[in-house]
Design brief:
Mean pLDDT: 84
Helix content: 25-40%
CATH topology of the largest domain: Rossmann fold
CATH architecture of the largest domain: 3-Layer(aba) Sandwich
Largest sheet: 9 strands, antiparallel
Distance between the termini: 54 Å
Oligomer: single chain
Strand content: 25-35%
Bound molecules: guanosine-5'-diphosphate
CATH superfamily of the largest domain: P-loop containing nucleotide triphosphate hydrolases
CATH class of the largest domain: Alpha Beta
Number of domains: 5
Shape: elongated
Radius of gyration: 33 Å
Number of helices: 15
Length: 613
Amino acid sequence: MQAPSVGGVMLPRGNGETVRLSRGASLTDFAEKINANPASLVAVMMNLGEMVTATQSVSDETLQLLGDEMNYTVQIVSPEEEDRELLESFDIEFGEDEGGEELLVSRPPVVTVMGHVDHGKTRLLDAIRKTNVVAGEAGGITQHIGAYQVTTEVNDEERRITFIDTPGHEAFTAMRARGAKSTDIAILVVAANDGVMPQTIEALNHAKAADVPIVVAVNKIDVEGADPTKVRGQLTEYGLVAEEYGGDTMFVDISAKQGLHIDSLLEAVILTADASLDLRANPDQDAQGIAIESHLDKGRGAVSTVLVQRGTLRIGDTMVVGDAYGRVRAMLDDKGNNVEEAAPSTPVLVLGLTNVPGAGDNFLVVDEDRTARQIAEKRAARERNAAFAKRTRRVSLEDLDKVLKEGEIQQLNLIIKGDASGSVEALESSLLQLDVGEEVDIRVLHRGVGAVTESDIDLAMGSDAIVIGFNVRAAGRATQMAEREGVDVRYYSVIYQAIEEIEAALKGMLKPEFEEVELGTAEVREIFRSSKLGNIAGVLIRSGEVKRNTKARLLRDGKVVAENLTITGLRRFKDDVTEIREGFEGGINLGNFNDIKIDDVIATYEMREKPRG
Ligand code: GDP
């Protein structure tokens, strides 16, 4: 069999062999893997009815489709898998403790505090930290490094707990988006005077998705109208049943403001960890873990708070964190003390990195500086490539309609950040009231007060959302991250303007609606038989005009006898013409369709796109 070709370009054809491609790969990437000319893949896509340029990043589905067409088995490789393979090429395994069971030693649980805005997450994290300042320790001045560790006594035993101190479920989302599991237990804060709110549910779902046990802190019990029982009832509907009702979730009533029952909450965390988790790690190996928070410090250069997950991190170690690397020059704990080493579940601020890693990036200690540099450089190169590819892929308001036509999204996902909860709510409700037809949904995935953060961008990346900042700006590295990841972030200071722009984009985004427009009718007067063309109808155009290549239906005694025909040939006397107007005679050929009788009526029409109101 001859290889098929289009326009002289030979089309590549496989034998079902597997081709591994990174998510967001282009036709050029694909061509490289199978040793083909990128132009030939463009031709294949064209054959499939899609115009794609060789360097444009395409969807998973398109890669699969292309593979099927050329008889290759396409395997899409996620960024996490790619990273694992990169590390494997250096003979490094990330995420597993080295050695057997006997080397594992118990470690403190790592806790994230989540819940609806204003329910008291920040206040609770402060309260926990304060109750735990050990007298005499470095003057008791705590440093905000993004995580801290406290001790609590449970059954006469001193136990430690590590808290991730980046309020909101931001840290949680960020790390989950990167596939890094950072949290062992989630404390879900619910204000007793407010009850279960949308972000309570969102937080709860995050925790469930990550398979993380939940301890519920029913907060603000000091406030008048507080109803802790109601909170228990409400959460039952979401599968969190309090122990006192026969379930297995611990609920603790607290007041973060007055410091009430904070100890009981810490105890509940330990008890929940003991009951449902086996928290152990090997402390005697090269350290591994994740970065929680990083920034550029004027005096100290790039600093990063990392959470050690296994092994012990020591001064002088060579480490890679995301695409940053370096030798650990100094380490500070959450109280600002210099420390020499950090064991599993310990957060420390690390000095000595070449640049600033991102939240959720993994870190690992390696034997040689050279290895660290190579891994970091490979990661940086990969990120650059991915950023380049993604720039064309993510949704922006301008290309909404294009993306929708490609069938990639049916709804517009939004993340709204604003300067005050009132304005955020006002904007959200106005947007949700936009009437743009039934085909497109607007969904607000997340709303909140404050700057647009890296975690917002993360969430937007994972769900192809557009971020709206109302009277706020981006914080930290959010702008760079959005640019790198191709996330569309829009800033407004007038609600009306925001609504207008979104509405306009949505209208463009709607699938075009077509309507049938009648073009003309022709009455069959005579039938000519042609050996080459089949039957030709000799007609008189009764109304409008008949055009070649338009759709037609055949009516007999006023009834439709054939649909979806095409005027394939049109003649005036001996000449081929493109149209014949009302009152003129001519010949019509309907392709393969030959069942034409005298007095039949041929009605022609075309589908036209209906303008949106
Ligand atoms: P977050 O948005 O969840 O971090 O909430 P915050 O910790 O910022 O708390 C929101 C507001 O509720 C602040 O004004 C706090 O002082 C207040 N608050 C937090 N916990 C309590 C509490 O237990 N009792 C009372 N009365 N107010 C509280």
